[in-house]
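Tip: read the tokens left to right.
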């Protein structure tokens, strides 16, 4: 896990010094240098111009009034924004365990080997159907251009995030889908609040966004590795819920999957990477060190899934030991969610049906 996260640092940098109170932009700065001397008569002209500019600023409409004037346009661009919309989410596909808001999550009680009574061939055939559904619905979402879908994947190392994304979204038009993998935060990212680097990658209207790891890293790895004080990471649960509520109210449906594998399955997957030279690039010896923190990570996952499963963005735990079953139920849940969103192509311009194309 170290190669994915690296050193986070123990906290954000302090506020820059030198500013003690806000300065009214309409008033002159007492610390600013005075006007440079100019030819006779030019100083009084500049003074008059400054005075006129200050008077105009005082008489201008406040920014709040400008926002109010634009409210209708904002509402038209994102109808859910002003209505506090919460999408009607369909139940997850059979085999997935959805964490009920307010109820504790215990991963130890969820079987990572579950297969829904399906066999591998049956699941692969069904996956093709779900992919086709996603492709068609994604085109409608893109054409509509009013809402978006954010799909979040979390898992322990070797949990299968990359493989799930690659398999489930096969054939989706890349113009309407973006995948973001969050690894070691940069210096610029550490200079901002912990959600900054995630917020700027959320999908715009008409898009499907995918987070391979996500904002939950900041209540998982930082907790297990003791990178920030407990009072810092504990406060982040509420901030994450607020962040996801903001996205939902702004027209983004948030769909969260935790890929649940067993410790024995992780051992097998790590061993397969060691045994296969073509998979050595995926293996980091530090993964063996991270494996020693298995129990600590399970406790951190339990807390995150418990505290951040909400009516508008519930957590779905996916039994992920069997990759073919994992892929099917994730694809089916994404397709069902898009279908519940029911995106529609925009109305065509009048008269198109009667047009002819000249030779």
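Filled-in amino acids:
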């Amino acid at each position: 896990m170290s190669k994915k996260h690296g050193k986070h640092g123990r906290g954000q940098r302090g506020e820059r010094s030198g500013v003690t109170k806000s300065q009214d932009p309409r008033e002159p700065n007492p610390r600013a240098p005075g006007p440079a001397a100019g030819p006779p008569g030019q100083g009084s002209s500049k003074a008059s111009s400054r005075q006129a500019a200050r008077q105009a600023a005082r008489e201008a409409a406040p920014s709040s009034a400008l926002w109010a004037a634009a409210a209708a346009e904002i509402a038209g661009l994102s109808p859910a924004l002003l209505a506090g919309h919460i999408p009607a989410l369909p139940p997850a596909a059979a085999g997935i365990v959805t964490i009920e808001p307010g109820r504790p999550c215990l991963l130890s009680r969820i079987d990572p080997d579950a297969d829904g009574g399906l066999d591998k061939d049956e699941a692969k055939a069904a996956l093709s159907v779900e992919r086709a559904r996603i492709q068609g619905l994604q085109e409608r979402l893109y054409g509509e251009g009013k809402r978006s879908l954010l799909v979040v994947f979390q898992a322990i190392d070797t949990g299968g995030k990359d493989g799930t994304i690659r398999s489930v979204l096969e054939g989706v038009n890349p113009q309407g889908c973006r995948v973001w993998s969050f690894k070691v935060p940069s210096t610029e990212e550490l200079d901002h609040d912990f959600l900054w680097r995630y917020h700027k990658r959320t999908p715009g209207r008409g898009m499907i966004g995918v987070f391979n790891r996500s904002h939950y890293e900041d209540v998982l790895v930082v907790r297990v590795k003791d990178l920030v004080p407990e009072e810092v990471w504990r406060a982040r649960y509420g901030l994450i819920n607020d962040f996801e509520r903001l996205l939902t109210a702004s027209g983004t449906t948030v769909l969260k999957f935790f890929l649940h594998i067993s410790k024995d399955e992780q051992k097998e997957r790590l061993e397969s990477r060691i045994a296969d030279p073509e998979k050595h690039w995926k293996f980091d010896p530090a993964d063996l060190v991270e494996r020693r923190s298995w129990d600590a990570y399970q406790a951190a996952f339990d807390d995150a899934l418990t505290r951040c499963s909400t009516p508008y963005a519930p957590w779905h735990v996916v039994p992920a030991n069997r990759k073919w079953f994992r892929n099917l139920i994730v694809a089916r849940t994404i397709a069902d969610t898009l279908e519940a969103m029911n995106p529609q192509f925009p109305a065509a311009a009048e008269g198109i049906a009667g047009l002819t194309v000249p030779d």
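The longest strand covers residues 252-260. DSSP finds 15 helices and six strands in the chain.
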